Amino acid sequence: MDLAKLGNVQNVLDDFTAKKEAAGLNLLVCKDGHEIGYWQSGLADVENKQQYQRDTIARLYSMSKPVTAVAAMILMEEEKLDFADELYRYLPEFRNVKVCTDRGRQGNPRPANRPILIQDLLNMTSGYGYGAWGEGSFYGEHLTSDLINDLNEDEKDGGKNQITTRDFARRIARIPLNFEPGTEYNYGYSADILGAVIEEVAGTSLGDFMKERIFKPLAMNDTDFYVPDSKQSRLAKVYRSVEDWSDKKNPGVRHLELFTSCNLGIQDKMNHQPAFESGGAGLCSTVDDYMKFALMLTNGGQLDGCRILNENTVRRLSDSRLMPSVQQTFDIKMPHLAGYTYCNLLRVAANPGACNVFTSQGEFGWDGWLGPYVSVDRETGLSIVMTMQRCDSGTTSAARKAKNIIYSTIDNI
């Protein structure tokens, strides 16, 4: 391995912040369980000129999903959860779900041909989405947007903070699906429903289950569904990166705008214990904390002598594949993930040669709305974690460029 080449990662991060693609970000890389590089750039708080640092706390948004998947796998190993079971056996409100393919704000739902399975939640084939993108969206997506608005109002400062994870599941169960369960892929609230299943099966809140079975054993002391007062100074602010085309001399130049709204029912200040513990988007963490989680998976389910999952269970994460017919809809809806499939709330490299980033067979991970990114590669022993707080990010060019540099420096790819 030519570690000198890894210095180019700093250039990627510095260029990203210099162009105001993000206010700040950091990245940590481990190989075979050993740290081989850490880089940071920019600011966690632009207004107060606070540096983005190694202990900066970031909202994970959808990078919460892999944690929820591991929580479900723990229950599967204990024979308390069956992925082939119907969802309604755990949450009875889903017994008679309906489907509506009408678009717009009116529709005529009909009974689904088959129930939603637990596996549908893990593979995003349940039929639930993340709300309407416009008037032409499915009828159920408009109703989902109404639910999202209620969640945002409930969780913001001054909100009632009363809609629990189980309440959320009861409400979304009344919303018609966008398609028959198991027949298509649609990214959405499946992981949040799975969070409610975990609560029901474990007999405790999702947050408490994760703390006792994942966070405490792995010493992930800065990971939770909120940030206490003692740590609030480390919480990064959220920014939009906005292109300005009004200046003819510098068309498309970017500037940063502070974002302080709730999104998907997740509070911005993260300053109180939420009633809605979102298994799909609610966690916050640091780059070191999440690396402990990634290393546990890279090491086959254990870290520093503490076992979270059986190695065969972790192997299933990298071996899983969507059914061919569903893979087609995934490929259409997620063209930026060419060469990947999606299973167990994770992207999985099924055809590395078709991927738009350097990777290897079975590499898996996910990203988040604000730009955090994780990659677990058991074949090469690489674990990569990036955090940032930029709206509408997902997998960024910074993540891809850095990953390409990292993979081009190691042997046996």
List keywords for this structure.
30% helix; 17% strand; 16 strands; two-stranded antiparallel sheet; alpha+beta; 413 residues; 11 helices
In N-to-C order, the SSE pattern is HEEEEHEEHHHHHEEEHEEHHEEEEEH
Low-confidence stretches: none
Residues in helix, %: 25-40%
The helix tally amounts to 11
Briefly note the structural class of the backbone. alpha+beta
The coarse silhouette is: globular
CA-based gyration radius: 21 Å
Instruction: Report how far the terminal alpha carbons are from each other.
Output: 11 Å
How many DSSP E strands?
16
How much β-strand is present in the residues?
Answer: 15-25%
Average pLDDT works out at 96
Largest sheet: 8 strands, antiparallel
Going across the biggest sheet, name each strand in turn: 3-2-1-16-15-14-13-12
Question: Can you characterise this structure?
Answer:
50% of the residues are buried. The longest helix has 17 residues, at 139-155. The protein has 11 helices and 16 strands. Helix 1 packs antiparallel against helix 11. The chain has helices spanning 8-18, 65-77, 118-123, 139-155, 165-172, 190-202, 206-215, 287-298, 311-319, 324-333, 397-409; strands at 24-31, 34-45, 50-51, 58-59, 98-99, 110-111, 238-244, 253-259, 284-285, 302-303, 306-307, 340-343, 346-349, 364-367, 373-377, 382-388. The protein is α+β, with helices and mostly antiparallel strands and 413 residues long.
